[in-house]
Amino acid sequence: MLTAIDWIIMLVYFVFVLGIGLALKRYMRTSTDFFLAGRSIPAWVCGLAFISANLGAQEVIGMGASGAKYGISTSHFYWIGAIPAMIFVGVFMMPFYYGSRARSVPEYLRLRFDEKTRAFNAVSFAVMTVFSSGISMYAMAKLIQTLHVFDAPFQRLGLPLSWVFHAGILVSAVVVLAYIFLGGLSSAIYNEVLQFFLIVAGFLPLVYLGLRNVGGWAGLKARLAPGYTHSWMGMGSAHTNRLGVEWFGLAMGLGFVLSFGYWCTDFLVVQRAMAANSMSAARRTPLIAAFPKMFFPLLVILPGLIAIALPTQSSTTVASAQSYAVIVPEGQGLIPPKIDPATGRPLHDNQGNVQLDYDLAIPNMLLHYFPTGILGLGLTALLASFMSGMAGNVTAFNTVWTYDIYQSYINPKAGDQHYLWMGRMATIFGIVLSIFAAYMANSFNNIMDMLQLVFAFVNAPLFATFLLGMFWRRTTGHGAFTGLLAGTLTAALHHSITLPAGAGPGVKGGWLALVHTYPSEMAQNFWTAIFAWTACFVLTIAVSMVTRAYEPGRLKGLVYSLTERPQTQHLPWYQRPGILALVALAIVVLLNIIFM
Amino acid sequence: MKLDIRLPLGLLFVIFGLLLGGFGLFGSKTIYDRSLGIDINLWWGAAMLLFGLAMTLLSRRGEQDAPADRERHGAAEP
Which among A148, A182, A253, A532 could disulfide-bond with A460, CB atoms 3.0 to 4.6 Å apart, if both were Cys? Predict the structure, then answer.
């Protein structure tokens, strides 16, 4: 399947990735250089790194899968579920993140509130981010194994095929470890920019070929049911659209709570903005990132739609979970059915329908349209997207560990060079922990689901805490901590008493009692988020009101009412955050209208 | 001074462009059934080569402009 040119392309890419790490090593003189790239990165570079770090494989594969399953409604995850939050964090929150000189998100919480709030955030984030990295690694190794692209060289070397999985994990771990160990955040950011352009280079021709093959967007609309190609159709009720959620749950659950919770508080992305070389650059970072982000649906979601719109392939050599077999007729388009490993036959759900393996939408699209040569480019792009997600997690981890856990609680009095050394050590054990998490994901699928659930519980209330912290001076540390705790527990409680339709009690919910059934898992997720956020918001206010207020002097630069507004009049229009924000909003509204 | 990202970015795409474009130009022509008969390696290789050259040129110009820019920005940026 793959020939020499494909291998050469992959090799060249890895050489560049490591080369960048080597080239930047000499600039790593202080801990600020290592963890914050010396706060010297231009806005456009930070902006592309911002979006690239977020673009893990789960995003690329997952969005393709959702495109095949739900259609263009998946774009809501971008146009509602990302852009507004990215605009908000750039315009309104970066002045506090950047202006406070906090070196991490938990450190901002320490400055604004107190140690226990910082500790809650630092520890939960550190654990979450290392597990995310492990899941990325696992997903990549699994995919490499499924595509069977490394089978031929492994056989020629006389190695057992089961080693492909382990090789995938090891190679990705070593490469990411090497370039972050050497060049820190700078290295991660530079490689993320490379990865961004590589992803565009790998997927743009795929979309071009696919659209040309099906007759453009009009051709796609003709081949698919209307619900696939109209993102707002049937959103009035959860029972009339494919997502299984109504517009309110979508807007508030995804658009507000989950989206703002991620983009405004997750250190993985905020770190890239903190590395910027000025306040206006830091504010512009998420705004610059918003522009490519809003066009990404065309790059990753459309291939999913095309994959399911094609006539069911019954003889093309494509991948399915078992082998390079022919697709049994139970598949749809390029999507094979999920195979029961015990019987080798397609799996069915409780309504008797075949379960499709949507995750294979994008990989099969690559294999279907790309001849050797550009196929190497496409696969490299896929690998690059996995690695950029991993690297984002690792840099966030080594910073939070070193500054917020090690320096705060274990060894506060060491010199800067010691913390630089610690950062490098943290990179190593962060990767080791990720490998551990990857193998856990391989062996204990349910545990991983549970862990991801816990992380969702912790994330949901976060934005309420930051919102109140940045915009209401009366918020106190006791209030913030209580709110976070209450929000997390509320999320767990809501999950324990509800179930999505068609699921049994267990990791999907309902493990305490069954009070309500949602039409879909997505609806349940969004409403869990809404309840958790509200609980956090209400309790933070309530407890803050009955605890002692902070002196205004202490909050200068940390709260909206006590901070000077950043000056932007002297900047050209394309460098003013307000203008960029309005342009981004206008375009995203237009996109929604076009694909309505 | 710090390495300008446009340099490695440009170089990478120049190399990719030459590799793919060269393969599309001189390699086997029978493999393009799946890409709807289009020699996608040649066309996309050429596009990447142009992009890579543009990035490399921008990075060189950036180095020459740097000292003047820094003075200007130093005064204006908050």
Answer: A532
Tell me if A505 sits within 8 A of A499, measured CB to CB: yes
CB of A190 less than 8 A from some CB of B: yes
pLDDT at A190: 95
C-alpha A363/C-alpha A304 separation (Å) is 10
Q: What are the pLDDT digits (tens) for A5-14?
A: 999 999 999 9
Cβ within 8 Å, pair A377-B77: no
Q: What pLDDT does residue A194 have?
A: 95
pLDDT bracket for residue A466 (50, 70, 90): very high
Helix, strand, coil share (%) of chain B residues, nearest 5: 80, 0, 20
Q: Do A190 and B41 touch (CB under 8 A)?
A: no
Walk me through the domains of chain A, giving residue ranges and CATH numbers.
4-443 (1.20.1730.10), 452-564 (no CATH)
Interaxial angle between packed helices A105-112 and A462-471, expressed in degrees from 0 to 180 and rounded to the nearest 10? 50
CA A100 from centre of chain: 26
Select the residue of A194, A197, A280 nearest B77 (Cβ to Cβ): A280
Chain A residue with the nearest C-alpha to that of B33: A371
d(Cα A105, Cα A87) in Å, to the nearest integer?
A: 18
Domain definitions of chain B by residue range: 1-56
| DSSP-assigned letters across all residues of A184-201 | HHHHHHHHHHHHHHHHHH
Mean pLDDT, rounded, for A147-152 = 81
Q: Is B22 on the interface with A (CB under 8 A)?
A: no
8 Å CB contact of A373 and B24: yes
pLDDT (average), residues A3-31: 94
> Do the chains contact at A205 and B34, CB–CB below 8 Å?
no
Burial class (CB in 10 A: 0-12, 13-18, 19+), A157: exposed
Residue B77's pLDDT band (boundaries 50, 70, 90)? Answer: very low
Chain B contact set for A278 (CB, 8 A) = 73, 77-78
pLDDT tens-digit readout, A192-227: 999 999 999 999 999 999 999 999 999 988 888 888
Q: Are the CB atoms for A140 and A358 separated by under 8 Å? A: no
Give phi and psi for A332, each to the nearest 5. Answer: -140, 125
Dmax of chain A from CA atoms?
Answer: 73
Gap between the Cα atoms of A495 and A507, Å rounded:
9
This model of the complex carries an ipTM of: 0.88
**Residue A44 near chain B (CB below 8 Å):** no
Q: What is the pTM of this model?
A: 0.90
How far is it, in rounded angstroms, from Cα A251 to Cα A397?
31
Q: pLDDT at position A326, please?
A: 47
CA–CA separation, A489 vs A369, rounded Å? 48
Residue B66 token pair: 């740097």
List of residues 6+ apart from A325 with CB closer than 8 A: none
Q: In this predicted structure, what is the pLDDT of residue A235?
A: 82
For residues A10-25, average pLDDT:
95
Chain B hits for A4, Cβ within 8 Å: none
Please classify residue A19 by burial: count the beta carbons closer than 10 Å to its beta carbon, then call 0-12 exposed, 13-18 middle and 19+ buried: middle
Q: What pLDDT sits at residue B63?
A: 64
Confidence grade of residue A232 (pLDDT, cut at 50, 70, 90) = confident
Helix or strand run (H / E) with residue A518: strand A516-518
